[in-house]
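Field: sequence (string)
Field: structure_tokens (string)

Example rows 1 and 2, in order.
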Amino acid sequence: MSYYLECKSPPSISNSTQTSDKPRLLDQVRNVIRCKHYSIRTEHSYLDWIKRYILFHNKKHPQDMDEEHISAFLSHLAVMKKVASSTQNQALCAIVFLYRDVLKKDLGEFQNLIRAKKPEKLPVVFTQEETKQVLLQLNGVHWLMGQLKREYKMIIKCCRSGFYFMKKQFSASLRLRAKIAVGFV
């Protein structure tokens, strides 16, 4: 039981099918991840990215590869697979973990690495002028609902104490509008 506490690999089973005492690479990765108490989702993700990395280089052992191979794989993800920057970063973290923590191999600089583009951030909230422009385009019931929604938001900002009452009144007006549109009133 001491191998669990000391985070060493479990003793090998003397079986004719096993050729060496050293665990396979992915078993080593799994063992180190568990010793560091990473989440199970991280374990699955890292193992998947390491498998993809090895398969990309025709099952060549990572010990025999260097920074150029890593750059080629990550650039392939960005250019050919068109992955998001966060996806490429996750793959990079998995590979760095493999080399730094499992293989104990120091990595240098990544030359010629093509990074995936980060998406352009779009504004989440309209300005007051943009809101006015949208409301000017609405007619009839849609204009009324837009005005109610706008006024509701402004009142909530001004007076937090009446929040529940106003929310209830606004919800009631929406239900009434739905009933009028369907023809129940």
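Row 2 begins here:
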Amino acid sequence: MFKSLVTAMIIAGLAAGAAGAATPSDRRFAASTAREARQDQRFATGIANGSISSREAARIANQQVRIDNRQARLAADGRISARDYARLDARQDKAARSITRARYNRH
């Protein structure tokens, strides 16, 4: 009885660990999505308080659409490589700098 209970607990623990483990690609995708959400919030705040002009808003929105389209093309096969994520991350870095510049340029 005790032996079968211990065995069942070990199997349940392994199954739970395997089910909860995310692949590196999944973790990168989650981080990328969270980062994009934070940038969208900064962008919306800048538009709402008037620190981003309509021209700047259009340029930044187009930049983000291009990044989203690129990510969708790369994810079409179900997996994005680390190199592709690095490139997407560099594009997100550039977009973040654009948002910061637009918010604080005192047009």
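free_text_note (row 2): The helical segments are 2-20, 24-48, 54-74, 82-104.
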